């Protein structure tokens, strides 16, 4: 018996099925250096997952054919080479899609639609009859300027089971904007939609589907709406519990233009807030003012990444936190030498805050000898 036969070939079917299913849920590869590099266009394009598994051996083929869950993950894209070869034979580039839809049974669908490499209308035409099964939908575009041509295809699409929506652009630059107004989309109803992730794009902020959310991630969406529209947007999602912001803070504040006499936006159910600073020309990031847009009475976890010491001290002063991060050494637990998780009972502005994660350039605390990620 060979080494291969004593390992993979000896796995019971149930274990192989579990492994195959875990593989189906693995996220799409993206470039970690985004936006300095394109998000996805330079990454290796993975082959169709269940099709690849079926080509290993007859046993795997039989297993995969009996697993509808594997066929419910549909990534519509293609390589640049096949794009050139099939430019005049659009049908061939999508001929596998009906097979996947059929073999997925009636399971919820997890769809990634790469509009930079496919004839969008033809692809949407195949998916549209099954829109009531869409559970997770990811729309990939070249840049935010591509959205006005793509979003109208989804204005009245019925997605009653949609739970998660992601829109991401391959290229992000602050100066790239949509030259035409962005239409609302998925306007019929999204009763199950709870999570929206925008990466390198912005949308019509105070319109569907940005409503009734519990999770919102805004990565490189600097063109936030004016403060009044921002109030309307969050008022439409009164139960939001998790908010993630990764962006150039100054651009956000310039677009919001909050008049400080106005009351802050209450996020009554927000439990988790994460802010990661992206720097242009080493500009100062006024994280304290960004947090000040909101009233956070129920916040339990605050994550601040890539802050300089002066920026942290502004936050600390505003929210009655110790100015010196070394003051958290007592009772703190250290996750790594690059990141510390701080747990303590904190003062009135954030009465329920119990976990604070702060990161930045490494700085050695002279008192404890521990690395604190809040360097100068």
Describe this structure in words.
With 376 residues, the protein is α/β, with parallel strands linked by helices. The protein is built from 13 helices and 16 strands. The chain has helices at 13-24, 49-54, 58-65, 68-71, 80-85, 90-93, 97-103, 120-127, 147-150, 227-235, 249-256, 287-292, 309-318, and strands at residues 73-76, 109-114, 134-141, 164-169, 195-199, 215-219, 242-247, 265-266, 272-277, 294-295, 301-305, 333-336, 339-342, 355-358, 363-364, 371-372. The strands form three sheets. Strands 1-2-3-4-5-6-7-9-11-14-13-12 form a twelve-stranded mixed β-sheet. Strands 8-10 form a two-stranded parallel sheet. The chain is globular. Residues 79-87, 328-347 and 363-376 have low confidence and may be disordered.
Number of helices: 13
Class derived from helix and strand content = alpha/beta
H and E string:
HHHHEHHHEHEHEEEHEHEEHEEHEEEEE
Give average pLDDT, whole number: 84
Overall morphology: globular
Query: Order of strands across the widest beta sheet?
Result: 1-2-3-4-5-6-7-9-11-14-13-12
Helix proportion: 10-25%
Distance from N terminus to C terminus (CA atoms, Å) equals: 61 Å
- Uncertain ranges: 79-87, 328-347, 363-376
Radius of gyration: 24 Å
The counted number of beta strands is 16
Biggest sheet character: 12 strands, mixed
Strand percentage lies at 15-25%
